[in-house]
Amino acid sequence: AAKATTKHPKRSITKSTNKAKNDTKTDKAAEASSVVEDVVASSADYGNEEEYLKIVSTPPTNNADNIRVAVRIRPPNKREQSDSDCRVCVSVPTDRKGVVLVETTPFTYDLAFPMDYTQLQVFEAIGVDIVRCAFNGFNASLFAYGQTSSGKSHSMMGVPGTSLVGLIPRIARLLFAASTNDSTKEVLVETSYMEIYNEKLRDLLGDAKKKTTELKVRENKQLGVHVVGLSKEVVTSESETLAVIDHGTKHRTTAATLYNSESSRSHAVFEITVQSKYQVAGTEMRSRSRVALIDLAGSERSDKLGSKGKALQEGNNINKSLTVLGRCIRALIAHSKDGKTIVPFRESVLTWYLRDSLSGNARTTMLAACSPVASNIEETLSTLRYADSAKSIKTAAVKNEDPAQAKIRELNSELEELKRRLEEAEQGGGGGGGGGRSSVTDAQKMSNDEKESLMEELARQMEMLGEGGFTSSKLNASKSRRTSVVFNGTGVDTDQFPMLTCLSKDTMLNHAMAIPIIGNNFKIGRSGVSGEKNGFELDGMGIQARHCSFHSSNGGAAAATGDKKNNSKKPTMKVSLCSANAAVYVNGVAMHEMDSDDDTPSLTLQHLDRVVLGPCRLVCIYLTQPMTQEDKDFW
Predict the structure, then answer these.
(1) pTM value?
(2) Of 8, 259, 580, 595, which residue has the fewest beta carbons closer than 10 angstroms?
(3) CA distance from start to end of the chain
(4) How many CA atoms lie within 13 A of 538 on its CB side?
């Protein structure tokens, strides 16, 4: 390779450090690393963005697909050229689908990049599709794997402001270009940056104190696998994203080794979250996608690197996490065949975080970086085998949007199609036409039975959507979430007041059950009691046969009496205990612990009072009128 045309100062790092480097102002075109120190860094080339935007605007489809595996062979660096055995032992066939290593069976991959491939060509093959997924609501993941000093960080980050700029800055640039180009979509972009150092997660965007705090990986149904307490920065442009990357990179743990003056001593994860709002057939839709861009630390051989002390410990932890990653890949392949093999994701922080990328809801790409020289043939062969096993893993990416909205949109689309086909059928009449090409359409060929079938389907779709289309269907869906309560075998309207509405930590269950208070003496207690049934039956620990009763001054809910005039008055409601062992709390006050002259303590309820029945068995709010929007937001 040609010598660099411009000399740039190197950053000298002689030992592993977890503190931020000094904020010395260095040229943006500084050397990428010892791996590419002899590659000419010309001005930045971002390719044909107009063509990229056309690709990005075409959304992918929901389907299961194998992990896409790409292998990149870098040119020999100065250190390798000075080795006694500097022969190039790796080649890439012209079809760019495989890698040939001397004296071994050729490996086949989805993509293979030879030594002369530029950063731009790699981005066109990998990065554009990642932006396409993220912009259209699909999760995407890219992780770079290889031995230390194989060119992973160069491929991922490169040198901003030059032709050597890597995948992550290019992905950010195209993502904001797509957002600017599409005026029909509102986009919010958040970024986070963390490292996994010695099996501990650390925030690279927080202050020094926060960096020393170990973060935790958690999982729930809404967010999937995520990191609790991780700093997130909202960015609105490519420059702001690069500033976040630069800030995080300064805090990343690196060290000098015999192979690299700035060897990564941790796995780095740069995450981009894209939230979008857009209109589809008059329906407002929202989607949320996550892009995980992971620069894995290189696998190491301590005898070659001369690692000792702390560097040796770091290398051991790096190799441990990569070994577990390999075990997870093999277990996933076995699980796809027998359905029984357990995948050991939790054995390493890295694999637990990568769980969705390896087997969940994400379109995943693996970039394997290799050295081409014979002195590294063992490491290169290991990397190629690692990548070859990963291509058998299958993931299932789906669009991350509100399922209820998506279903309504699908029904609206089917409804419009049915209407169109019926109109064509009605206009088709007799139709005929002779000559070379028939003018008889499919609609004209419809039989009466087919038309009746379409009419039935159209009626079914209209019923599912509601008489008023999307707007009323939203209201109906919201209303149907509330459980219909049956009292003594008689159904009542759950919108009658006064009532109790139940609270839950789950937003889908919050206010999902309403209990209208009927009559002058409305009792709550266990089911199956002798004598008169309770107005509302509630079973569970701490609930008594006759637990409590509600006494209304004007007969409770109008549904019980049918008296509209009575319903116009605000009832005075008292709650009292029916048993000495019954536990009832009103706004945190334990009624069973109150001092009272009567044997049965009672309290007068006000609108929005909080009532707990039993030891946290059922938490309710007492309502005498519909809740305002402010009340709903609070509760």
Answers:
(1) 0.61
(2) 595
(3) 66
(4) 25
